Amino acid sequence: MTVVHYERATLGATFLPVGQMLQLDRVTAVDDSSITAEMDVSPEHWVFPMHFPGDPIFPGCFLIEAAGQLVALWGWEAGLRGRPRMAKASADFESPVFATDRTVTLKGSVRRRRNMCFGTVNVLAGERTVATIETVIVVVAGDADN
Questions:
Q1: 5 a catalytic residue
Q2: CATH number of the domain that 47 lies in?
Q3: pLDDT of amino acid 111
Q4: List 5, 51, 81, 102, catalytic entry
């Protein structure tokens, strides 16, 4: 049985974005150096009718955003508070995400140096590798509401 650490509804209690900008649907594992989450995709997802009508694929920029959110959430779990900012990102894409994929899994390995989190995120649709995304999240000290 998979232990769900966060559901979409409870992620709002962290410093992640809300509404359509929140890319993660559930976090299934978090430990000292890794985090795993899932995104739900389906033909009904709001992005598919707009992103290449007639040939819909999930936007790569949203996968990069999801990887950043994953690494930021690991930072939250590690005790960082403030305003997370993506300082750097690079991605190698191997395969698109289609509406028929249903679930996208993000598996991140993360290390921390002061207020910076360095993550390598493997993105999978089923057993198919979609992308490897490197991201650096900096958590700027201060009130997250300002």
A1: no
A2: 3.10.129.10
A3: 98
A4: 51
Tell me, yes or no, whether 135 lies in a domain.
yes
CA distances from 22 to 19, 26, 95, 112 (A): 6, 11, 22, 23
Region of residue 3 (phi > 0: left; psi between -120 and 50: alpha; otherwise: beta): beta
Distance CA(125)–CA(114), nearest Å, equals: 33
Which domain range does residue 26 map to? 6-140
Q: What is the pTM of this model?
A: 0.92
pLDDT per position as a tens digit, 7-39: 999 998 899 998 889 999 999 999 999 999 999
Taking phi over 0 as left and psi of -120 to 50 as alpha, with beta for the rest, 25 belongs to alpha
Amino acid symbol at 136: V
Residue 145, domain member (yes or no)? no
Residue 42 CA to residue 103 CA, distance in Å, equals 8
Q: Tell whether 28 is covered by a domain.
A: yes
Instruction: Please provide the average confidence, as pLDDT, over all residues in the chain.
Output: 92
Q: Which helix (H) or strand (E) holds 132?
A: strand 128-140
